[in-house]
Amino acid sequence: MKKIVVTGAAGFLGSHLTRDLLGQGHQVIGIDNLSTGKRTNIEDFLSDPNFHFIEFDVADPRILELMELDGVREIYHLASPASPKFYQAAPFETIAVNTIGTQNMLELAKKNNAKLLYASTSEAYGDPLVHPQPEDYRGNVNTWGPRACYDEAKRMGEVFCYEYFTRFHVPVKVVRIFNTYSAGLRNDDGRVISNFVTQALTGQDITVYGDGSQTRSFCYIDDNIRALELAMEKDEATGEIINIGNPKEYTILEVARMVKRLTGSESNITFHPLPQDDPKVRRPVIDKAKKLLDWEPAVDLEEGLKRTIAVYRQRLTCLQ
């Protein structure tokens, strides 16, 4: 049994990861300030003797004084708003959790000689001029726009990781996560899969921004969690930045049509102005993940959408 910290434990990725780690018999300390995470995501764990929840902001320096964190062996630093809807509403908090919060978690790792995995993002590539995106591409990020609080804060978090790895030899692993989905996404999350599925099942218009020709690559949550755990486990990932995502690329309009078909919805697909700095393309090169982690995604988009739709449909039925 290992003592493991998961920041952002009540969020989408964090709650799925926590569930899996507890299932393996580990002791998990979940930390979340519940700004975007939901307590309902962790309710099932609260009675588990191996789970301890701390409602706390990781950007608060007092976190390093918490005795519960002594002896931790692994830290998954996932805390941060991830949907534009939420990080644009809380820009300063988003900057803080990915900079000050990241340094605090690196200090905790240094103090305990623990491994740390930092959840960075494909948004580090901005609106890319290189396609698909390998890890050595430095990105095309706008520092003066509504997405910058997230994009640039994540990039700065990576810098903190670099400095602690090179100066203090903290065993750091950085993963750049591309679009991830499942029924665990909040219905009001604002990201494309949760939007499309909720709209299709409730008979609302399916809202596509721009002409729908912009592309994304969608990774099912089970594949993502497996990659995070492999990155933490493997020494080969230490000091590396690794793309985690599905290299199969779809246009947003293709996804809207697929959701409409799989739900049997009669919703109309409508088109709206594209938000500022919205990336035109997004697809990972995952050669590094294949080589260092022996990982690649196993669940294709249609199968993942079927699983997601089934759960969303059940939830909506229960609310009626």
UniProtKB/TrEMBL annotation:
Its cofactor is NAD(+). It is a single-pass type II membrane protein. One of its GO terms (cellular component) is cytoplasm. Keywords: Decarboxylase, Glycoprotein, Golgi apparatus, Lyase, Membrane, NAD, Signal-anchor, Transmembrane, Transmembrane helix. GO terms for molecular function: NAD+ binding; UDP-glucuronate decarboxylase activity. It comes from the Bacteria. The keyword Membrane applies. Pfam families: Epimerase (PF01370). This is dTDP-glucose 4,6-dehydratase/UDP-glucuronate decarboxylase. Residues 4-245 form the NAD-dependent epimerase/dehydratase domain. It is found in: Golgi apparatus membrane; Golgi apparatus, Golgi stack membrane. It comes from Lihuaxuella thermophila. SUPFAM superfamilies: NAD(P)-binding Rossmann-fold domains. One of its GO terms (biological process) is UDP-D-xylose biosynthetic process.
